[in-house]
Every structure is written in structure tokens, then in C-alpha cells.
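Sample entry (253 residues):
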Amino acid sequence: MKWVVFIGILISVFTETYRGCITNTESQNFRVDVKADLSDVSFPLNIREPSGLSFSVSGDALYVVSDKTGGICRIGFTGEVLEKLPFQGHDIEGIEVDKTTGEIWLVEERKQDILHLSRDGELIERITDVKTDTKYNSGFEGIAMNGDLLYILIENHPGSLIEYSISSKKWDRHKLDFAKDYTGIDYDSSDNTLWIVSHESRTLNHCTIQGKLISSQEIDVKQAEGVAVDRAAKIAWIVSDADSKLHKITLKD
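Predicted structure, serialized as C-alpha cells:
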């Protein structure tokens, strides 16, 4: 009987010791893994303050702009830098690649200028037709393209969507009201809609081309500032300005 009691005590001590070993590390990691969507991953970027994201013409890479340096990089889907373009800008926030010509479109936040570049990064034109009354540092934040139309985001104060015609130089403004701010945009040709990320709300939002919300999903991205959506693969690529990462997010919509 004494041996039975002794063995029982040993088993109890061993069990508690084992539990103690995994509580601070393994058990916490296990809980995180269970809750996380295993397809949502992030990759480090050797790019300071990435702000803006667009697929290449062939869709086999991404273009990203640095708000810190004003440079443009072509990157792979695991964050590696494949090419640095010679362009050097200032206060650049958004980037879009014309999927027909490969030409590049950028926006400058405070000056509210639209920059049209060649596919090699040479300046073709600076467009100054669109000016809005916003607070300092709350100007142009993102750009997307649909043929002759450019969609430009105003971050906040107030948050807005600009629809600009390249040929006629006319533009309309739509008020946005579904998030705290608006920091990245992509056009979805599969259903003629837009995808807009919000840094402060930490959401990825599916919208009409007039900026009306269709659906929204939460994202675990710190200071999201650029988005490119692959609807067929149900993937959104999002860059984080704060920690210089490329996030791969599974679409819920």
C-alpha cells in the first residue's frame, strides 16, 4: 500500500512539473497556433516605411514604394527585393502599375499630385488637377486604376474617394464613412469593385467603386498602408508601414 501511495505521489509531481515546463512557452504557442489561420503569414521587408502595393503586369511580383526614401522596389511574394527603380520621390504614399502598359502611377500626400512614370521609373507627367481641402498630412494616401480612371484615397479629415478621368481631367469625390481612416486601395477587375485597408480600424474593406461598403474583415496588421488583392486565389497582400512586413491574408469575402 505504501508503494502505491509513493508511486501516486511521484506521478503527481511529474505531471505538475511537466505542465510547468510547457505553460510559459509551448502551451502559449499552441494556443496561438490553434486560433491563427495558418495561411496568414508575414515576411520581413528590407524597405523602410513601405506604403502602397501593386501587382506587376504579369502578376508574378509586387511593386512597393517607400514613404521614407521615396524609392520604388519590385519584390517577390516572400518579401525579397528583386529590383530597385532609379526613381527618387518625396512624400510618396501610393503606387499602381498599369496592367496594360506597365507604366507606374504614384501619389504625393501633402502636395496632392499624381505622378505618371514609365515602366523604368522615368517621370512622364505630373498631374496637379486634383486638389482637396484636408488637414496637413491627411492628403493622398493610395491609388488604384481601372482603364482611364484613377481612384485616389484621401486618408481622413474627411476620408474620401476621388474618381479621376485621365483623358478628360474631370473628377468626382465620394465621402467614405466605414472606417477611422483609409490607407491603401486596389481595384478588383473580377467584379468592378475596390478593396480599401484602414490602418486605425485594422480592417480590409470590400467596396463599390463609389466607396459604399460591401463587406469588411478584421486584419492583424500594424499600420496597414498598401493592399493588392488576388481574388482568384482568395489572397490579399498587405504591407505594414510600422514594422516593414509583407502580410499574406486569406480573404473571407
